[in-house]
Amino acid sequence: MTAIEPKEVFDIFAQINQIPRPSKHEERISRWLQDFAAAHGIECVTDDAMNVVMRVPATPGYEDHPAVILQAHQDMVCEKDADITIDFMNDPIQTVIEGDWMHAKGTTLGADDGIGMAMALAALTGSDVKHPALEALFTVDEETGLTGANRLQDGLLRGKRLINLDNEDDGHICIGCAGGIDSLGRMHYTPVQLPEGKWLALKLRVDGLPGGHSGEDINKGRANANKVLAYFLTEIFDSTDMYLATIHGGNLRNAIAREAEALVCVPFDDRERLRILFNDRAAQVEAVYQANNPNIRCEMQTAALPQEVMSLPDTARLLAAVTTCPHGMIRMSADIPDLVETSTNLASVHTRAEADGRPYIEINTSQRSSIEAQKHQIKRHVEYALSIACDEVTHGDGYPGWAPNVNSPLLDTIVATYKQLYKSEPNVLAIHAGLECGLFLTKYPDMDMVSIGPQMYDVHSPKERLSISSTAKTWQWLKATLAAL
Length: 485
Known about the structure:
Layout lengths: L6 H10 L10 H13 L3 E4 L5 E5 L11 E6 L21 E4 L2 E4 L6 H15 L8 E6 L7 H4 L10 E4 L7 E6 L1 E10 L10 E9 L17 H15 L3 E7 L10 E8 L3 H19 L7 E7 L8 H13 L3 E5 L7 E14 L5 E11 L2 H15 L5 E4 L13 H14 L4 E5 L5 H7 L4 E4 L4 E2 L7 E3 H17 L1
């Protein structure tokens, strides 16, 4: 990484990727940022949430120009392939470079938003970067709740112009984003013993799916492993007495589920009939999803009999809830072409146990919409579906969307800079993903904001990759914009 350009950016990104930084565990990266500031003689302050703000004065000749804030988040989504062994709490990311693309060895890369942090730090320390007074804001826990932006200390920021460095499309300028809210369902149940008779345990597994970002990839036809697994389970349940023992699918609320598996028990005498049924349904599923999920794999294998299972009525209720719970794009925007307006993600379904050993099923979902009323409407839809099985359904605090401002002076400058550099028009748009900018507006209503970043694909999945040439292009664009400001 230290041999590629822009060296000043990738040198810092290489250091960042040595530091474990899962969401809600930013202690080490926050400490590293403070040490970085001290080593470079940069003014640095923090707040109670572990957000970090650095400040440098204007370069000569720019002292009378208003300050600019560069903003990125400290945490990363930690996803891995099933065959990869890594401790995200302690191990560094293993970076791989292939041609123009940078990715990680079987895990997320952390370019979302490590590369944004690296560009902000390079701007603060770069000897060839001309700029007005700069502030750099590094927030915590963006990926699982926007906690840092929500708890940002009042008055911590001095500037009124902010460039968010958490975009993932080359040549795009984001000026608006969706708001979101998470929902959590819990279904407590009393396990039972299998009835008298001869039983067969089967493990059903769905994997090989691309997954991806639950906002930006939600309308790309990517299958949700939880939904596919639920289809197989309901087909078997409708065909015979099927007792569910355990179920595990998906991981993070903002990632589309890539893998899911369940352990079930069925009458031994139905084994051949169920094998034929499963193979037939698997062929149908793979045919339906093949175009956008070319590596989808559906398997059924025999397993050891569990000691306890879920009763038939409880199994029926759980399958009804998971099957009914919506997933995917709900509505496209009527005002902005190609923009998803409202969506929901059935993120994870897991068998858990309370401290006293009592089992329950935990179902996590996340809803997004650029229209506040629609966000709460789909939240309610999810709640009604989960209530079929769950004795407890709760919702997070949520976060607001960021309404586009097409009359932004900052937008005019960054568009003009792009056109001057590349002799083409940038794409100005709103996105369906969530950004922290909406929360910044609640604390700083006069803040003028845009969001840019280099080209990335498949963030929030182990296929996450970053374009090296696009990073260089975005870095030049950022430097030119700061000079123009």
